[in-house]
Amino acid sequence: MPEKVGTGQKSKRRILRECFAVLFIFNFIVLLAVLITWAILQPKKPRFTLQEATFFTLNVSAVNLVSAAIQLTVNAHNPNSRVGIYYDNVDVYATYRNQQITNHTGIPPFYQGHKDVNIWSPLIYGNNVPVAPYNGIALRQDQWNGKVRLIIKIEGRVKWKVGSFVTGRYHIHIACAVPILLDYTNKTGVLFGNETMYALSQSCSVYV
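The chain above was modelled as a monomer; its predicted structure follows.
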């Protein structure tokens, strides 16, 4: 004959079921509260502006080799009044016609508070970076014509902070156009020895 389950075992099982039910309800309520708070606050993406770009060098040493050194001034603004932002694994580099022409320069991790504005000043550079031959030829032609358009890209991860709650990581992609004139009749940059500084105040595209 099968053994009968004792009253003590039944009580333990009932207590375990009740504990799991309470824990589930508690987690559900917490998650619901976070989602409602998130929906009410409606966090906005950070805003980025490329203020200045100082060119130390931008040369095509061969049809497939490019050297560049550029000092940037980037304005990072958190427009949220109740949401903070953690930045991590942020890298900055330059591209020409969708091809990278500098190495990655890292931005140290940091927290950006409500309505805060931070200024980044990364130096991005690359020496004899390989590119497709047609891009090397195109860059030489653009320099000869006096107009060059680069894209500064910033990539990393962010976490949103609402009160004491911190979300998981999200990828952030930022693209800033750098249109510069190199000819002497319409030059937009300011010369400092061998350096040329361009005041841009260029808004950047942000994708999270």
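The mean pLDDT is 86.
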